[in-house]
């Protein structure tokens, strides 16, 4: 081996081992098998590489025209670079400077290189990094700069390598901060192309959930701050990513909701439906009532599963990069000022699409962080008109910006403008339907906006023939049945049951003083261990609340609700399934009248008893004393048993995993009972409303849009698929094979004798009548001719 180190190129040429005649792939394989035996050949190729690099740089400096046209120069340089990259791990000392030289070559002469040579050099650098001769910190800035050249293949190669390399890194790798600093510093530059590539890299890594979460919050903040970049293209790209990220999450939710039928076949742990209800839906009643009960059962199961899926989802389902803003109020004010300055100047600086994206981002920020930006609602009044382009998205932004922390006086002008512009008799049905849905969503977030007179006027639209309008009005009535039924007229309030809801005051917040739903666990323990005093059936019935009737009564009450609620299920996910039909309203009036009659009869009977029984008998007095004594003893025993029962405070207030699991099961049972009894819908919490993005398509529910000619032709062609080609009846008769038809055979049959005689008689009478009338018939010239 030592002799081979002293050989010169002449001696190698004389021995027939010249590196010029030996191909590089064959030499590469031999070097991998015997690195020490081919060290001289490596030095020759390394010297050739340096010479070709010097020649290439000189020609590039002199702008020599034959460099780009002669492919042999670039090909030899690329082949030697790739060869040395492959054998670098076998000669770490001899090729210690090679990675730095190759990096400097790509950095300094990248523009002068042809496309093939740039790809070869980039692949050689990637190979060196995979062999751990280079690190990602050395190549990240270079590969970001290389993407700005305009070479599509090189840009794709460098971008995919950066993303895949960072994805393979560990989550707790401390190098993430250094890499983020490099990319963010490039994003803050004024060069548009470099900032664009840095933004694309950050967005891709955030979308892949690599730089996601509180550990990498500086990435999300940098993307949000890119909305104020000097370049309009960078600003539009950042706004579009913030909105598209929300759309991606929304598509995931819709896909999950579309697969409800598939999920029905899978076992669920917490879906609890009473067996008796399932038995009645399949075995009791007529066929029509069975269908109603089964449809009701399916809707109840779907609603329960949807709630359980929403509660079990992780926080990433409602994640948005806007969550990591350090100062969201300043961000929203700055973006709004940029939006208003573009509008106040005589010529608008941004297009309507850009302004719309800015409105949606501002509204999303206000809803997520519950900000106070009162001038935004005044700005939206300029666009809340039916003739505006993409007005549904503007109204969705207005709904998104409403929350319980905004005073109703600031939103009232915008709310009244929507009412006056959209909901009136001369407006189109589509505009009225959208207006009613927007009013419902705004009142769901700020109930103080609605007045009694306005609500009663809007409730009259429930009798419209247009399905979209009537569904919107019924959903509005269903909402105020839950949050403030006192604003509705008596026939729209529905059946009375449970306490009357009262709207929250401005700034009122429900603060949990204990574990949520822990009372279910205590009630369950009470029902299992302790019996209530007075266990007679009559007393039990008196202690039962009004809304806890049997399931048969609940089903009979809600059978009429089934008729007209299925079609309204698309109006809103939280409201539309609870709308009622007019038949229910008539029944509620009858129930109210019956209730009033029963109350009046009870009062009359009570007055009669007072009038008759002025004196109290001694026997009744002794019986009352005895019953009072027994009830007092029962109450004492009940109190003693209650004190002996262990409380949460005595158990140090610590719940075990078994307790939490039991609470979850009890909550599922409670939701199942509510869903089957149909006692109204549960109004979402303000936090849930702020996290959920408002979908503009939900505001256009049940609206029939006019089809284009292409869509109509597709429907026509779809209807013709199973149809046979048209032929005339004579053609089909001629092509017919076989005997004659039954109709033809009937004509050939001999008539019975009685039929022949009756027919002959009818013909004789008709001839006689004709002859008698022939003499009196006028046969002169017509008077009108």
From TrEMBL:
Record has Protein transport as a keyword: yes
Domain SDA1 N-terminal as annotated: residue spans: 83-464
The keyword Transport appears for this protein: yes
Keywords for this protein: Nucleus, Protein transport, Ribosome biogenesis, Transport
Residue stretches of biased makeup (Basic residues): 759-770
Polar residues bias: start-end ranges: 311-323
Residue ranges of every copy of the SDA1 C-terminal domain listed in the record: 738-783
UniProt-annotated location(s): Nucleus, Nucleolus
Region (Disordered), start-end ranges: 251-270, 282-324, 517-618, 710-785
InterPro entries to which the protein is assigned, alphabetical: ARM-type_fold, Sda1, SDA1_C, SDA1_N
UniProt-listed GO biological process terms: protein transport; ribosomal large subunit biogenesis; ribosomal large subunit export from nucleus
Family annotation (Pfam families): SDA1_C (PF21638), SDA1_HEAT (PF08158)
UniProt feature, compositional bias: Basic and acidic residues: 710-725
Any one of the GO CC terms: nucleolus
Residue ranges with Acidic residues bias: 251-265, 522-571, 579-597
Family: Belongs to the SDA1 family.
Protein's job: Required for 60S pre-ribosomal subunits export to the cytoplasm.
Name the UniProt record assigns to this protein: Protein SDA1
The species this protein was found in: Brassica napus (Rape)
Gene: BnaA09g46460D
